[in-house]
């Protein structure tokens, strides 16, 4: 435990937090490098966190208990993004930031569609994490969501413990958007883009709310159901955002009336739709390594020889060809159920052929 009188953080924690440059709305993701057991027990410690904008510092002081959840959210963004794009040339490698070089690759700094996706996912994830942690009792002084005002259906009653969106939404929104509302935080076009995409992430999150239920009754008859409202899993929200990434709209910053706004570049003059991701600059093809453009290339990436999608060897390897290799897998097989109540299995070995891009 830390001594509150010293107002000092452990060296490892402080080193990780020093990486957190909040001048950009997603730089809080560098907190994923922090130890999961992050404890801050004194509001004075908030001023030890560098590069926090005043609004974020105040949120830290008044909601000290959320820091651990924010660290978990940062890790969740990284894991979810990489899994969602594992079958594409850009596989969210941009979020991989080494501890000795806390700098994002240019593909996230230049206002690309990749940046659009990461901002939207980050915005959704922090609210998702705060709301769920609150409902699970992981945040001090916060509990399950209030029961919905609407009457329950004829086949269920309100109960359970729903995600506390009333807690997570305003707090997460304020934390994520605060840096983009500063005059010194980059160009006006970039700020408008990031604020728009962050709101798209929140919109997708709100649309993901669904009814979850638990059955009650004799022998699981489900004669009575208790239901509550909760967000879908992040993987489903990320897939929704991925489809918007694929159809994202390129925009330009031009005068519209008395002020400059983002408008679609190649479409007849119309406002930007509030449910579409937008970007300012085209992305590289991510085929070859190019540090200036933020591309790590696809050399040595695994591809699928039989696929016709984005993970196919033709598309993933950009026509360079691929190399085969074999891998031995040990799996459970010939499983047998024994009454009552256990299963025994044997171990079987098989050889599979894999392919990696040249």
Task: Quickly describe the structure.
With 358 residues, this protein is an alpha+beta fold. Helices cover 31% and strands 20% of the residues. The protein has 2 domains: 11-296, no CATH class; 302-357, Wnt (Wingless and Int-1), C-terminal domain (Endo-n-acetylneuraminidase fold).
Explain what the structure shows.
- With 358 residues, the chain is an alpha+beta fold.
- It has two domains: 11-296, no CATH class; 302-357, Wnt (Wingless and Int-1), C-terminal domain (Endo-n-acetylneuraminidase fold).
- The chain contains nine helices and eleven strands.
- A three-stranded mixed β-sheet has the order 1-3-2, with no helix packed on it. The chain has a three-stranded mixed β-sheet with strand order 5-4-6. Strands 9-11-10 form a three-stranded antiparallel β-sheet.
- Strand 7 (289-290) and strand 8 (295-296) form a beta hairpin.
- Helix 3 (67-84) crosses helix 8 and helix 5 (113-135) packs antiparallel against helix 8.
């Amino acid at each position: 435990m830390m001594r509150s009188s010293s107002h000092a953080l452990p060296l490892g924690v402080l080193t990780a937090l020093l990486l957190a440059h909040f001048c950009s709305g997603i730089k809080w993701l560098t907190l994923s490098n922090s130890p999961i057991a992050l404890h801050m027990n004194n509001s004075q410690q908030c001023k030890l966190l560098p590069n926090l904008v005043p609004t974020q510092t105040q949120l830290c002081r008044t909601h000290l208990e959320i820091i651990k959840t924010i660290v978990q959210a940062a890790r969740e963004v990284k894991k979810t993004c990489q899994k969602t794009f594992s079958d594409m040339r850009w596989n969210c490698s941009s979020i991989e930031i080494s501890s000795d070089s806390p700098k994002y690759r240019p593909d996230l700094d230049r206002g690309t569609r990749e940046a659009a996706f990461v901002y939207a996912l980050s915005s959704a994830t922090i609210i998702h994490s705060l709301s769920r942690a609150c409902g699970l009792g992981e945040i001090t002084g916060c509990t399950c969501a209030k029961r919905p005002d609407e009457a329950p259906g004829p086949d269920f009653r309100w109960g359970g413990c729903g995600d506390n969106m009333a807690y997570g939404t305003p707090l997460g929104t304020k934390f994520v958007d605060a840096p983009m509302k500063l005059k010194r935080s980059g160009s006006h076009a970039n700020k408008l883009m990031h604020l728009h995409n962050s709101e798209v992430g929140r919109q997708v999150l709100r649309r993901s709310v669904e009814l979850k239920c638990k059955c009650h009754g004799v022998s699981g008859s489900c004669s009575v159901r208790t239901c509550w409202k909760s967000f879908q899993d992040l993987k489903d929200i990320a897939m929704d955002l991925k489809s918007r990434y694929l159809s994202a709209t390129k925009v330009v910053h031009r005068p519209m009336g008395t002020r400059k706004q983002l408008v679609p570049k190649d479409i007849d003059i119309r406002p930007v739709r509030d449910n579409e991701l937008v970007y300012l600059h085209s992305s590289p093809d991510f085929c070859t390594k190019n540090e200036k453009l933020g591309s790590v290339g696809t050399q040595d990436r695994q591809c699928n020889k039989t696929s016709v999608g984005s993970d196919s060897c033709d598309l993933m390897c950009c026509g360079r060809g691929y190399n085969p290799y074999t891998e031995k897998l040990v799996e459970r097989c010939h499983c047998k159920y024994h009454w009552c109540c256990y299963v025994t299995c044997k171990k079987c070995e098989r050889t599979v052929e894999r392919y990696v891009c040249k």
